[in-house]
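ok so I'm stuck.
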Amino acid sequence: MLKSKNISTLLGDYNSMGSENTGRLRKFAEIMQADRRHPLVIQDGLTKYAAMLNGDTGYIAEDRVSPVASLPSYADLPLVADEAEAARLSSLVEVVNLNGGLGTSMGLKNKAKTLLPVKEDTEGKPLSYLDVIARQIRHNPAASHAFMNSDHTEADTLAYLRQNHADIQVESFLQNRYPKIDRETRAPVNPAEYKGDDASNPPGTGEIYTVLALNGLLDKWLAAGRKYIFISNGDNLAGILDPRIVKYLAANDLPLLMEAAERTPNDMKGGHLVWTEAEPGARRLTLRESGQVDPADVWYVEQKDGKELKHTYGEDIQKHKYFNTNNIWINVQVLKDLLKKYDNLLPLSLILNKKEITDIAGNKVPVYQLESALGSVISLIAGAAALVVPKDRFAPTKKNSDLLLISSNVYDPIGPDGVLHLHESLRSGQLPEIKLDEKYFTKYQDYKERVEFAPGLLACAKLTVNGDVYFGQGVVLVGEVLIDNTVILKNGVLVPNDKALPVTLRNITITGQPGYKYVQDEKGNIVQVKI
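replied:
not stuck anymore, here's the structure
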């Protein structure tokens, strides 16, 4: 029986916070009780909410951290001898794909992002993320596999797997959800005032630890001989089980290993690794998410479009060199003991994720989502380590620009093993930086209307698209390419493209360079002009 406090007793613990805040907490608990959440989940949510009400911003200040100067490298890991050793090492692992994402940043709603088509196989067949994951599962039958789904992704994910991949076996378990918090009133929003589940949110990937305790899965996996859990995002097809890493874990008796990668200008906003002091003289690796960087820790100020744009030290990729890929390896027994130590509620760092939702009256409401991150557990475990891995173990899809990159020839077609490989010419180099006009490419449906075929990007350093642009077959981009369809060239003069004539690119190679852009002239030709 899992230990949890009676809700009335728990609320009584917060009496010292004053009647207004205790009223907010009571309403939060009532919403979760009506939603039939387990008492342990309610306790977890109340703990986070009370911390927010007490002024916890979740910030980890710059003067409390030290940069991580160096880490061991995947390139130095010993090789696995043969297929027999690879199978033995794989049999020690439970693979968990985080599959709760809906792709809201891509304009999707109430549909698992992993159902989207992402890449063709070697025979030209289009594959969804789930198709690719199914190939990975078939290729490594010695391991066992599970999905952590959300309420929005459970049904369609399992239905798709039953219909298309009935031969593979996977477990599934569900995240919970918390009420969203009105940023202005600091009260939980009323579910009756919103459509569907807009008033609630999953509590972030860090909730997986409580969910595993609730479902008894750790004991089940230990009994089956699983020594490690490998957790990765379902939309990161490059985050796969690797026997070399399992061998490294076992040889060094590591309780936890986080896969990190070297930051580039494309990674300025992600969570990064720092050192903190768990106690005087005792350093621990800590994950600081971008939302946990104190806005007051200003690195430099940029003047842009007549406004001051402040950049924090969290964006200083020279100082903070490594970011978290969200590929995490955890010793199952260590995790079980850690959960026992904290009564199944790990004190993970709070993240206040700012969002905006619309109520049934059409009003825009700024809210907080109370969350925690999977990787923040690293600071709770003595001896936890990190490993620098190549970028071909990290290919997430958070925006349509990521989808464009993965579907292009930057990555090879998917083979029977389901492994997403970078093209050999890019495995030690810089990936193209892609910026697509948010007006035309943010929503997935708008993106699909405009990208009939992904352009060739092998020789492209940077692609910027402004305005309405369509990509047909046979487009190759080279160098730094800026395609600007907000203007048009008439009589040698650039004027606004008032009619917003779409640019359609087909069977064309565009070679760009800094200081130049490509526009459409009055005859519809694509021409290069100096910026």
